[in-house]
Amino acid sequence: MTSPENCIFCKIIANEIPSKKVFEDEALFAFHDISPVAPLHILIIPKKHITSLNELLHEDIDLMGQIVLRASLLAKEFGISDHGYRLVNNCGEFGGQTVHHIHFHLLGGRHLTWPPG
């Protein structure tokens, strides 16, 4: 697993790696994905290094709620809430997780098919 010292998202939060930030507060950081799969593709990450959904603790309930609420507010801010959007979390290798810091993809701006692809 990735330690916070070697985590690309922790380095983005610390401004060691540049990003196109769209939101930051004491708990969360959100930025445009560098390889978007939709016209709007924002990553929402907690500043607390949590490897995946599998590592969540009871104490993280409020933090997860903040992420979902922030996704809704960003969808409104970027004009995708009326037509719909997707909030995605990939967990583990078979789930498609490539960065081992929990994160959520806010996707919208076009008709999203299911299954994704």
Structure description:
The chain has helices at residues 8-13, 61-77; strands at residues 21-24, 28-32, 40-46, 85-88, 104-108. It has 117 residues and is an alpha+beta fold. The chain has one domain (4-108): HIT family, subunit A (2-Layer Sandwich). A hairpin with a 7-residue loop joins β2 (28-32) and β3. The mean pLDDT is 95. GO terms for molecular function: catalytic activity.
Please provide the count of β strands.
5
CATH superfamily, please? HIT-like
Widest sheet: strand order? 1-2-3-5-4
Q: What level of helicity do the residues show?
A: 10-25%
Q: Overall 3D geometry? A: globular
Compact description:
It comes from Leptospira ryugenii. The chain has 117 residues and is an alpha+beta fold. The chain has one domain: HIT-like (HIT family, subunit A), CATH 3.30.428.
Name the features.
117 residues; alpha+beta; HIT family, subunit A; 2 helices
What topology emerges from the helices and strands here?
Elements: H1 8-13, E1 21-24, E2 28-32, E3 40-46, H2 61-77, E4 85-88, E5 104-108
Antiparallel strand pairs: 1-2, 2-3, 3-5, 4-5
Active site: 103
Motif (Histidine triad motif): 101-105
Organism: Leptospira ryugenii
